[in-house]
Amino acid sequence: MIVVKAGGRALAQNLDNIARSIARRASVGMKVIFVHGGGDLVSEYERRMNIEPRFVISPQGIRSRYTDEAELEVFVMVMAGKLNKEIVSRLQKYGTGAIGISGADGGFLRAERKKKIVIMDERGRPRAIPGGYTGRIIDVNTGVAEKLLDSFHVLVVAPIALGTECELLNVDADQAAAKISMSLRAEKLLVLTDVEGVVVGGKILDKMSAGDAEKLQSKIGVGMNRKVMMCCEAVKSGVGEAIISTGLIDDPLEALEREIGTRIKS
Ligand SMILES: Nc1ncnc2c1ncn2[C@@H]1O[C@H](COP(=O)(O)OP(=O)(O)OP(=O)(O)O)[C@@H](O)[C@H]1O
Ligand SMILES: [Mg+2]
Fold first, then answer.
1. Residue 139, SS3?
2. Is the confidence at residue 188, as pLDDT, over 90?
3. How do residues 24-53 score in pLDDT, each as one tens digit?
4. pTM of the full predicted structure?
5. Which of 41, 60, 190, 193 for mutating ligand 1's site (highest number of atoms within 8 Å of CB)?
6. What mean pLDDT value characterizes the chain?
7. Residue 194 is part of a domain; what is its CATH number?
8. What distance in angstroms lies between residue 41's CA and the mean position of ligand 2's atoms?
9. Which atom of ligand 1 lies nearest, measured to the CA of 36?
10. Inter-residue contact 243 to 256 (CB < 8 Å)
């Protein structure tokens, strides 16, 4: 079993090839949990509903969407609705038995709502603000995925979790993919994005250890830093290999078989 995550921009530009690439592996017996991002599409629909999307940056340089009550509604509609079902329909088109859920379905993903978050304000000073409807994943119900993967080749997961009071929460898709890969002891975690891999000093790193990655963290920018952090956590807790690679090519899953992208091992 492998876990594949694709970001919103890779999906917007290349969903058809990504779906075909997954379908090709599923047809020879590979089981895939496919976690999708889709922040840009959420922003687009927020604007259509006259809501201006907001982003915050933590003191560690991690960027997140800020989700208040109105934004959560759009997040759930777009992620668990439109995007999740478009991905399922594309996989079905290529002959793959696929089922799409959000992390709330069956209680698959549980998260702890962030009461306060610390952000950097306009003057670059840390400030605590209410956390809104975002959560940190604390539990993955492996039985849900195992049962669904008994019946379907691909499980498509929207990055939404249930909070401790069963409220819907926006969770980060990179984090969701990593936590799922760890809990289900996936062979590999493949993170598809809109660049070819992790760039340090102008070059794509073909491999790194979790230790190297921690030392390089300050040289890696917004967006990628979170992926590297989550990949390290995954390989340190038993996932065989994490790969960050492009989702923009004809056959993005060839990163599982060929040495492209950045490969992270413990
Ligand atoms: N050192 C780096 N190497 C490679 N990419 C980097 C680096 N630092 C920052 N980035 C940026 O990280 C981005 C990828 O992360 P980003 O969060 O934007 O995409 P995603 O997670 O694939 O999509 P989404 O967040 O919409 O789900 C790249 O487009 C690149 O601009
Ligand atoms: Mg991202």
1. strand
2. yes
3. 999 999 999 999 999 999 999 999 999 999
4. 0.96
5. 193
6. 96
7. 3.40.1160.10
8. 13
9. 27
10. yes
State which of 55, 62, 224, 246 you would mutate to test the pocket of ligand 1, scoring each by most atoms of that ligand within 8 A of its C-beta: 224
Q: Which domain holds residue 251?
A: 2-265
User: Which of these, 151, 149, 148, 168, lies nearest to 160 by C-alpha position?
Assistant: 168
Any ligand 1 atom below 6 A from CB of 39: yes
Whose tokens are 């102008």? That residue is 202
How many structural domains is the chain composed of? 1
Q: Nearest to residue 174, comparing CAs of 191, 199, 197, 195?
A: 191
Whole-number Å distance, alpha carbon 225 to ligand 2 midpoint, is 9
CA-nearest residue for atom 20, ligand 1, is 7
Tell me the angle at which helices 39-48 and 69-76 cross, rounded to the nearest 10 degrees: 120
* DSSP 8-class letter at 253: G
Distance of CA 104 to the CA centre of its chain: 15
Residue type, 126: P
Q: Using a 6 Å cutoff on CB, does residue 40 contact ligand 1?
A: yes
